Structure formats: C-alpha cells, structure tokens
C-alpha cells in the first residue's frame, strides 16, 4: 500500500484541539508538554481551554496546529508500521511535514513557526491586508482579474490553489475588494472574505521573508527520511538547503496544493492520511483526484478507524 501523509494549515485551529489524544495517549500529552517547554508558555492550556480569540492569533495558531499534527502523527507511528512515500502540508502544514520527514526536530519547529507567525503578523499593519476565497473560476482567469484589480502599491495575487474551482486571493484591502467584485462579474460562484490577520502568501509578505531568512539559517535542518513536497513549486526535496529556500519563498508565494497532490499521486500515493485538526485537506484531495482514498487522524475514534482501514 502506497501512503502519503498531509498536514493542515492555519484556519483549522479550534478550542479543544488535541484533547482526545492527550487524554488517551501519553505520547500525545508529552508532545504538547514539549511545545510548552519550547515556547515558555502553556500552549496546551490555550489549545484545550482557549480563549478562541487568543488561539486564532497567527503566532499562537501556527505552533498549535504544528503540535496537534505532530501529536497525531506520533501516536499513529507508535501503533502502525506503515511509512509514507512522501509528505506535504498546506502552508504552515509544510513545517509539520518536515518534522514527519525527520528534517527538523519538533522543538525547533515549534519555535520557528511561533516566530514565523509573529513576523507574518507584523509584516503589514492591521486592517490593511485581506484574503478572500473565490469559488468557480479557473487559475488563468482569476490571475488576469488580480492583475486588473492591482494598481501601484495596491496589489492582489493568487495565494492558495486549493482544488479545482477554489482559489484564495491575497493583497491589500482595496485590491482584494476590487478583485472580488470583478470575480463576481465574471460569474464566480461565491466570494468569501477570510478572517485573517494579514495578506498571507502575497508579495506583501516579502519583508517578513527577509527577516525570517536568518531564523531559517539558524534552524538545525537535516537530510530527510522521505521527500517533502514543496508548496511553492510542488517539487520533492530532502536537503537542508532546499528546505530553507522553499520555506523562505513560501511566505510570499502561492500554495500550490493541487500540484502537491498531483506530485504525490505521480510518486505512487493512493491513500492520503491527514494528521491534526479537522478534515479540510481530505475534502480538497477528493476534489483534486476522486480515485484516491483519504483517511485522517485527529482523535481516538479517527485513529482507530484509520488503523483499521489500513489493514484491510
């Protein structure tokens, strides 16, 4: 059986995340404790009790999702001998994938994404950036709309290519608003403004990337056990140098999740297992390729279901 592992990104966080695994598996509880020690505050308490508005902050949501994903993956690994042929994540999830590929120690990854979240939060003044999900338009048409809606320092760009007919745009408030209106005129099925603290995966994040590069250089990356599929170009990588380049570019480039899944399928993946919170990626993957199987590990029931499904 050829299996690939995937890890979700920001937006999946919810109060109570990790609770089932923490209560039932010491390995999950220990993973959250490791994160608490790395950060110097109780991420565990924030995940389990909230408040929601604190957990939603970029620099809290990112380490929280990473920790929940690693906890689920570690518990699964302790119960199964199945190993993936490749791993990938959606935005922040690429860091969880790096931990799963043994390319970055968990404690270092937690600290790195905490600082990543801070830099992303500070890159553009509050209220000046925006993101919206556009349903029902193709990439080329929406890219042309973004170009038309951009004017000087007001820019809007493709940010997340999630699945056919679902693309997120990102940029300044004014340009995103203009592009949203144009998209509706071009018969977009829906345009949904996203609740985010900045224009992620757009060129407005370049200042954050410049500051982040020094942290990437200091992080103790190592050669991976399995390929990680890069968000920026859907190419597999396994070396520290490639990881640093991919993660720097990822901050201001589109997340090419559709291409990531195609790459994994081309590598032979027939079953995708999503680790962490929710099942957003599983839903996207089924829209990208209806012939693959999706499973998930979020809590004790889904862990047992996935372990059972993988033995059939």
TrEMBL record:
SUPFAM superfamilies in the cross-refs: FabD/lysophospholipase-like, Probable ACP-binding domain of malonyl-CoA ACP transacylase
Any GO CC annotation of this UniProt entry: cytosol
Active-site residues, Swiss-Prot/TrEMBL: 91, 201
Protein name: Malonyl CoA-acyl carrier protein transacylase
UniProtKB keywords: Acyltransferase, Transferase
Record-annotated Malonyl-CoA:ACP transacylase (MAT) domain positions: 6-305
InterPro entries xref list: Ac_transferase_dom_sf, Acyl_transferase_dom, Acyl_Trfase/lysoPLipase, Mal-CoA-ACP_Trans/PKS_FabD, Malonyl_CoA-ACP_transAc, Malonyl_CoA-ACP_transAc_FabD, Malonyl_transacylase_ACP-bd
UniProt-listed GO biological process terms: fatty acid biosynthetic process
Catalytic activity: holo-[ACP] + malonyl-CoA = malonyl-[ACP] + CoA
Similarity comment: family membership: Belongs to the fabD family.
EC number: 2.3.1.39
GO molecular function, one term: [acyl-carrier-protein] S-malonyltransferase activity
SMART domains linked: PKS_AT
NCBIfam families: fabD
């Amino acid at each position: 059986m050829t299996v690939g592992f995937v890890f979700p990104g920001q937006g999946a966080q919810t109060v109570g995340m990790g609770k089932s695994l923490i209560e039932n598996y010491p390995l999950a509880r220990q993973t959250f404790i490791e994160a608490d020690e790395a950060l110097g505050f109780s991420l565990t308490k924030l995940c389990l009790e909230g408040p929601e508005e604190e957990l939603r902050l970029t620099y809290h949501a990112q380490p929280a999702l990473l920790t929940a994903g690693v906890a689920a993956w570690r518990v699964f690994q302790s119960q199964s001998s199945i190993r993936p042929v490749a791993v990938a994540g959606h935005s922040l999830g690429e860091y969880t994938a790096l931990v799963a590929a043994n390319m970055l120690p968990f404690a270092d990854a937690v600290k790195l994404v905490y600082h990543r979240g801070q830099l992303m939060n500070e890159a553009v003044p509050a209220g000046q950036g925006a993101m919206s999900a556009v349903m029902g338009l193709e990439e080329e048409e929406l890219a042309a709309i973004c170009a038309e809606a951009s004017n000087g320092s007001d820019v809007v760009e493709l940010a997340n290519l999630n699945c056919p007919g679902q693309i997120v745009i990102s940029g300044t408030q004014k340009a995103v608003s203009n592009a949203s209106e144009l998209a509706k005129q071009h018969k977009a099925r829906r345009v949904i403004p996203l609740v985010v603290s900045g224009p992620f995966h757009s060129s407005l994040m370049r200042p954050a990337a410049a500051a982040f590069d020094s942290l990437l250089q200091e992080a103790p990356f190592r050669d991976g056990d399995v390929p990680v599929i890069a968000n920026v170009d859907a190419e597999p990588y396994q070396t520290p140098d490639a990881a640093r380049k991919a993660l720097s570019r990822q901050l201001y480039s589109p997340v090419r999740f559709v291409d990531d899944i195609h790459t994994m399928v081309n590598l032979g993946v027939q079953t995708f297992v999503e680790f962490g919170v929710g099942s957003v990626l599983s839903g996207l993957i089924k829209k990208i390729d209806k012939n693959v199987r999706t499973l998930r590990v979020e809590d004790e029931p889904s862990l047992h279901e996935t372990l059972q499904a993988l033995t059939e």
